[in-house]
Amino acid sequence: MSNELNQNGDDFILLPASMGGGALVRRSQIAGARANGPDGSIVYAMSGPSIYTTATIPQIGKYLNAEAVELRRD
To answer: What is the DSSP string of the chain?
Structure first.
């Protein structure tokens, strides 16, 4: 379901798994994520469980319509 079809932005996303399939997660239940090596990440859900996925942080950002920022060091 795309954001055009679900205007509240709380639809589900499928986070892929290395063994096929994956985890179906409601966007509003994602509390955060971090890289887990070069081939995936760990997504933290508000309900408590950690979700290990083959999706990278940039891919998860796209799933969540997040904006990327550029940091500059002076």
So the answer is: --TTT-TTS--EEEEE-TTSSEEEEEGGGEEEEEE-STT-EEEEETTS-EEEES--HHHHHHHTTPPP------
- pLDDT tens digit sequence for 32-58: 999 998 889 999 999 888 999 999 999
Q: Are strands 30-35 and 41-45 parallel, antiparallel or unpaired?
A: antiparallel
Q: Which two structure tokens, joined as six digits, stand for 2?
A: 């795309």
C-alpha dist (Å) from residue 53 to 15, 69, 71: 6, 23, 26
Phi, psi angles (nearest 5°) of residue 62:
-65, -40
Contact (CB, 8 A) for 32 and 48? no
pTM listed for this prediction: 0.74
The whole-angstrom separation of Cα 52 and Cα 22 is 9
